Amino acid sequence: MYLKRLEIKGFKSFAERTVLDFLPVKSGKFSITAIVGPNGAGKSNISDAVRWVMGEQSLKNLRGKKNEDVIFSGSESKGQLGAAEVVMVLDNNDGKILPDYPEITVARRLYRSGEGEYLINNNPVRLLDIHLLLARAQFAQHSYSVVGQGMIDRLLSIGPAERKDFLDEASGIKEFQIKQHQADLKLDRTKENIEQAGRLMQEVEPRLKILARQVKKLEKRQEVELKLREYQEQYYSSLFLANKRELDRLGGELEKVDGDYRVIFKDLEDIQTELARLAKGAARQDLFNELQSKYQALSREKNDLERQLAIKEGQMRAEYNVAGKQNISWIQDKLAGLKSQLKNLSSQLAEVQAEWKGAERALADQKNLVESCTREKNETQLRITQLEGQMLQDQSEQNYRQAAGLSAVQAVLENKEKFGKVYGLVAELAEVDEKYRVALEVAAGSYLSAIVVADDEVARKAIEFLRENRLGVATFLPINKISERRAAENENEIISQLGVCGYASGLIKHDEKFDNVFSFVFGQTIVVETLPVAQRIGVGKTRMVTLAGDLIEKSGAMRGGYRFVKKGALGFAHKLNWDQEKMQDYQAMILQLKQNLIEIDARQESAKAGLLQTELKREAARTRQAMLDTENKKLEQEIAGLEQELALLNVSPEEFGEMLSQLQAEKIVLEKEIKTKADGIDGISEKINRFNQEEEDKKQRVFSLQDEMQKKQSRLNEILSVRNDLKIRVARLETRQESITDEVRAEMGLAVISIIERKPPEIEPEKLEEFLAEIQKLKYQLSLIGGIDEEVVADYQQTKERFEFLSGQISDLNAAIVDLEKMIVELDEVMKKKRAAAFKKIRKEFDRYAKILFGGGSADIYEIYGEPEEEEVPAEEAEQAVIMEEAEKPKKKKEKILTGIDIMVNPPGKKIKNINTLSGGERTLASIALICAVLNFNPSPFVVLDEVEAALDETNTRRFAQILSELSSQSQFIIITHNRVTMHSADALYGVVMSGDGVSRLLSVKMEEDGQYQVDK
Question: What is this structure's pTM?
Answer without folding.
Answer: 0.41
